[in-house]
Amino acid sequence: MAEIRFPQLKTDLPGPKARQIIQLDDQMISPSYTRAYPLVASRGYGAMVEDVDGNVFLDFAAGIAVVATGHCHPRVVQAIQKQAAELIHMSGTDFYYTHMVEFAQKLASVTPGAGPKRVFYTNSGTEAVEAAIKLARHATRRDKLVAFLGCFHGRTMGSLSLTASKSVQRKGFGPLLPGVIHLPYPYCYRCPYNLEPKSCGIECARVLEREIFKKLADPEDIAAVFIEPIQGEGGYVPAPVEFLQELQRLCRKHGILLVVDEVQSGMGRTGRWWACEHAGIEPDILCVAKGIASGMPLGAIVARAELMRWPPGAHASTFGGNPVCLAAALATFALLEGGLIENARRVGEHIFARLADWPQRHRIVGDVRGRGLMVGIELVRDQKTKEPAQDLRDEIVDRAFRKGLLLLGAGESSLRLCPPLVVDTEQADFALDTIETCISELERNL
Ligand SMILES: Cc1ncc(COP(=O)(O)O)c(C=O)c1O
Questions:
Q1: How far apart, in whole angstroms, are the C-alpha atoms of residue 213 and residue 445?
Q2: Right CATH number for 16-73+339-444 from 3.90.1150.10, 3.30.390.30, 3.40.50.2300, 3.10.180.10?
Q3: The pTM is what?
Q4: Is the CB–ligand 1 distance for residue 261 below 6 Å?
């Protein structure tokens, strides 16, 4: 099966077996999950996923930007199997094992900033953000936090207090952490200040010093600023380089920690190890998860060593940094280093070259943006008014599925393309052709 590189559909969708599972799922599983279309996966290889009825799909969602090395990469599978036969669990909270230090050294070696670093392991992205909140408060003895509208940092109570992506994610769960200040994100296509990128004077960063520090919170009370260098859930919106640099300057000036959440953008997806590298900034704390172990549950924060001085017992996690997950992470790291980051950069360039004229050629495409294999396409009803076209976006996602392409939405009306980093240019062309066909079909009926 591994040689199949393009979709093969055998049944109506969903097929008979898929329909059965979905019916049971409807009865048994939490309705809080957001399934866009009826895919019931049974196995995966490379950038392909097969469903329970034998239909094969090209996966441009990668389990929400997780399977960085593709589905079930043989070297990742082998590392997991070997480790599972040797040591499944020990708890790094109370004992030592080799993989913990080995992967920490690898992570630290590619994290921006020359000084010594330390790593704390978690099982997920939200736990990495929780750890960053706790460390930032502990290290600064300050309590307030700054975050940005549209950003997604997770769903546990601390990280949810920073998340400001969709109100349904917060509704009914309050009160959340006090002392969190949200600012508009530098979403240049829809500038919150109605300015133009060339002449805006980086208003979205300057507002911090000019308004917030003067009127809302003394900078000496602010522990950290949390930012996604490219908004993921919020619509695949990259923050401009100058904005990130100015944010870093302001943080340093006032002793505020800069926490960069690379849970979605991290580990090679943007064509470099981290998205923040494109801006040349050096976060005080870096949050990672999703793609770092190719699908095994692992997250981490990497912090400047002088910040991570909390005493034994201050923070820990029974499962965080599990040996099997770390074995998968080490195999993932080797594959990324061995060519997949370069592949992400190369295939990403190919994709963006093809997308460049879509806003001219398609009246419902408002904006294309991103880096590497983190690609956002924003759908609008009208290019002048920029009215978001969520229904058209959802229809494209559904039609693409029925043509064998797995996509996800992001933000109010954007498509997110986040294929595994093993994807090649021919598969990228197939995906873009499919999306373009869906767009043209919709445009004909408008
Ligand atoms: C940027 C970012 N931070 C944090 C999270 C939370 O990660 P998890 O779902 O593993 O808790 C996500 C998940 O989508 C994310 O995209």
A1: 51
A2: 3.90.1150.10
A3: 0.98
A4: yes
Q: Which residues contact 124 (CB under 8 A, 6 or more apart)?
A: 154, 289, 297, 299
Query: From the CB of 53, is ligand 1 less than 6 Å away?
Result: no
- In testing the pocket of ligand 1, which one of 262, 263, 301 has its CB within 8 Å of the most ligand atoms? 263
Q: Given this structure, which CATH class describes domain 76-336?
A: alpha beta
Q: Where are the domains of the chain?
A: 16-73+339-444, 76-336
Please compute, for residue 38, the number of CA atoms within 13 A of its CA located in the half-sphere on the CB side. 18
For the cut 80, the answer to whether the pLDDT of residue 73 exceeds it is yes
Chain segment 101-159, per-residue pLDDT in tens: 999 999 999 999 999 999 999 999 999 999 999 999 999 999 999 999 999 999 999 99
Residue nearest atom 9 in ligand 1 by C-alpha distance: 125
Element (H, E) at 288: strand 285-288
Cα distances (Å, whole numbers) of residue 365 to 198, 277, 378? 22, 29, 6
Per residue in 251-304, pLDDT (tens digit) is 999 999 999 999 999 999 999 999 999 999 999 999 999 999 999 999 999 999
| Candidate from 129, 133, 152 with most ligand 1 atoms within 8 A of CB, to mutate | 152
- Alpha-carbon distance of 103 to 341, in angstroms, equals 18
